[in-house]
């Protein structure tokens, strides 16, 4: 299937890198940090209990669902306070968490594919997560990173897709959104009027009959191949 693409919006977690190892590392880092700086908190809230507290804080604050950083800070403050620790340590604990959150290991094809894609069309990150692309070292491939904290709503809300299109200077139908999540990425983008590309590394069955992705690949490299055949490089577009 061929169609023009003027820009791409790209999901991050589980599209550029797997999130599960990051989540496991975060728990280990936080538990170790608490053992060193607030032993009573580490004893009261080991990893499983901290996870349960995080879920409780998230459930109690639905109006902050778009701001994962604020919810994580609230979780840490509450854990420190309820364990008799020093709540002022929350900022330092959050920094330990955030450093671990941004230690990512990209899929083997992802970085080279991202370079190829960004040489063809402008790329913007549209993510529900809170990764820092500059910390990770990939920010130079992206025009911008738009997340729910900055925008005020998360995928699959159409407004976050439309905001990205506006910043890219493109109509929704000219933008291809790329991601792994069926609801957040593919259905959200399609309902917002964007083209959609499902990156499915697990050979899953597509569960919907009414909406299907415009493109379906098992890697970002396959998308880069498709773009190589469909779009001129940005350097050629700029001099045309």
UniProtKB/TrEMBL annotation:
Keywords: Hydrolase. It is an enzyme of class 3 (hydrolase). The keyword Protein biosynthesis does not apply. It holds the Pfam family Hydrolase. InterPro entries: HAD-like_sf, HAD-SF_hydro_IA, HAD_sf, S-2-haloacid_dehalogenase. It comes from the Bacteria. Its EC number is 3.1.3.-. GO terms for molecular function: hydrolase activity. This is HAD family hydrolase. It comes from Luteimonas notoginsengisoli.
């Amino acid at each position: 299937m061929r169609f023009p693409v003027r820009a791409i919006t790209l999901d991050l977690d589980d599209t550029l890198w797997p999130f599960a190892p990051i989540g496991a590392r975060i728990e280990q880092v936080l538990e170790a940090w608490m053992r060193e700086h607030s032993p009573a908190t580490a004893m009261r809230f080991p990893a499983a209990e901290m996870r349960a507290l995080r879920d409780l804080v998230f459930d109690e604050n639905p109006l902050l669902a778009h701001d994962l950083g604020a919810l994580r800070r609230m979780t840490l403050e509450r854990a420190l306070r309820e364990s008799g620790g020093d709540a002022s340590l929350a900022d330092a604990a959050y920094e330990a968490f955030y450093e671990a959150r941004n230690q990512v290991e990209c899929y083997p094809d992802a970085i080279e594919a991202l370079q190829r894609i960004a040489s063809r069309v402008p790329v913007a990150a549209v993510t529900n997560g809170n990764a820092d692309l500059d910390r990770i070292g990939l920010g130079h491939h992206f025009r911008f990173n738009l997340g729910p904290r900055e925008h005020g709503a998360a995928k699959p809300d159409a407004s976050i897709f439309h905001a990205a299109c506006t910043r890219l200077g493109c109509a929704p139908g000219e933008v291809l959104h790329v991601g792994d999540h069926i609801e957040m990425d593919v259905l959200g983008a399609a309902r917002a009027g964007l083209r959609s590309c499902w990156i499915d590394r697990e050979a899953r069955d597509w569960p919907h009959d009414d909406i299907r992705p415009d493109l379906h690949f098992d890697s970002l490299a396959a998308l880069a191949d498709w773009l190589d055949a469909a779009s001129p490089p940005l350097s050629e577009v700029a001099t045309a």
